[in-house]
Amino acid sequence: MTExxxxxxxxxxxxxxxxxxxxxxxxxxxxxxxEAGRGPLAGPVVAACVILKPDVFIDHLNDSKKxxxxxxxxxxxEIVENAVSIGVGxxxxxxIDEINILQADYMAMRRAIEAxxxxxxxxxxxxxxxxxxxxxxxxxxxxxxKVACIAAASIIAKVTRDHIMKVYDEKVPEYGFARxxxxxxxxxxxAIEKYGIxxxxxxxxxKKRIEAGRLIAKENPVTFDxxxxxxxxxLGRYGLPD
Length: 242
Prior knowledge:
By secondary structure, this protein is α/β, with parallel strands linked by helices. It has helices at 3-15, 17-24, 69-81, 93-99, 101-114, 148-171, 177-180, 186-195, 203-211, 227-236; strands at residues 30-36, 45-52, 83-91, 122-125, 136-139.
């Protein structure tokens, strides 16, 4: 093993330290939650909750944003194979625009936990306290880079949401969703101005730019499949644990 590989293994080993402490106290159903898609201009926000097996080590586990797309997809499969339980939930564009992105984020996280057959007894979150949840929570700043189960949840959420955006891209490739995942890139804004605002765009995210006259675009009433159905079809391929 090279020095680089040794350092990487030590980094990943450190991610498990908080869960190991809780396991030693007799708390074994430790769930980690995280989300993907708070910032984009279109599409749902997706959240995941993951309980990892205490005796399993997943190589290269990390905050999903620090992994290449290929590495994320490899890690996704490893997590599915080595988790006690995984739940995934989302809030769609209508919900984001109605209740705001933060509340929609919380809703997606609650739905992810509700989707789990084995529920966590203890929850470690990425810096947030999820309201209306009867589970002890431990918010951890930058938790996706510090705690294994949160890192795992970030990967599950990110890969799932990216798949939804790729399906949208097949419908409207001119918008470039497969490339920018609906973030506010120059190319994305140019596509909106050229082709129009889609039903999957978050109106509350575009409002200020439109009101300031910096975005002039018509409506483009393309019909899209339900993101929850796309998500369930995708996850069904992998046979999530329990």
